[in-house]
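Key idea: predict the complex, not the pieces.
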Amino acid sequence: MARASTTSDAFNAVAEPRRREILIFLAHAERPVGEIVEALGVPQPSVSKHLRVLHDVGLVRMRCEGRQKLYRTNADAIRPLHEWAATFERYWQHQLLRVKERAEEMVRQGAINVSPAETKQKPKRQKERR
Amino acid sequence: MARASTTSDAFNAVAEPRRREILIFLAHAERPVGEIVEALGVPQPSVSKHLRVLHDVGLVRMRCEGRQKLYRTNADAIRPLHEWAATFERYWQHQLLRVKERAEEMVRQGAINVSPAETKQKPKRQKERR
DNA sequence: ACGTTACATTCCGGTATGGGAATATGTCAA
DNA sequence: TTGACATATTCCCATACCGGAATGTAACGT
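Result:
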């Protein structure tokens, strides 16, 4: 076997930088192909081919209107990616939390001035890690 | 040009399912190659090759101990992936809400008959030029 | 019907892949 | 040294890529 098809899942489809750009561009509004071509400065056939891949894995939705086709990012299809990456969140948040906690500790001990007035303890937001 | 190298960035490296499995497996503790082989049931040369790719893009760290090499996931290298995906977070958060709002809007404009009544003309869609 | 506009598809070529098998490297132990 | 163990590398091959150029297709305007 060789490398998996780009259309095999969102992970493979998103591996291509140009496709990520397209997804960002189509995230907030639907656009005809021509505008993507213009915005990204990529040849039209190339854009069409990328859109085909994205559409095959459900990362974009398409709607016909007259002779143009309006594409739009389907954010839901990106969720699996986000959730997979979030699996590792606790490993990097752990470090950040320690930095934050140390800073707070120093503030509490008056080693750092937060405001020139009295140091009121404000309720600290804490993210609950499952 | 062909498809980008798997070692070109984390996105490409992670496109391979087996490599994602390895990253998960190495997330919470460092392991020698042999344990990965045993845990995933993949031939040793294959695991070594995957580890090489992951190491090239910084997704894993390696430490020698005697004749075995201990690998562990470097979660920080996954953050860019997570952050890119998080760009779309707001879109899937509001997606259901928007469907509902659109439906309500259509009802308000009479494009949809909620109760059996007269048929009104439906508003034409207009393309807003940015 | 004809030409134009808006996309999609096909063909090509150079490159890189991942699996399997075989082999190389490196470290320990007797 | 010799051998056993732990990993890494190399070779082969079928597959699939992306870009560019050319071509196909469908919907308009006149």
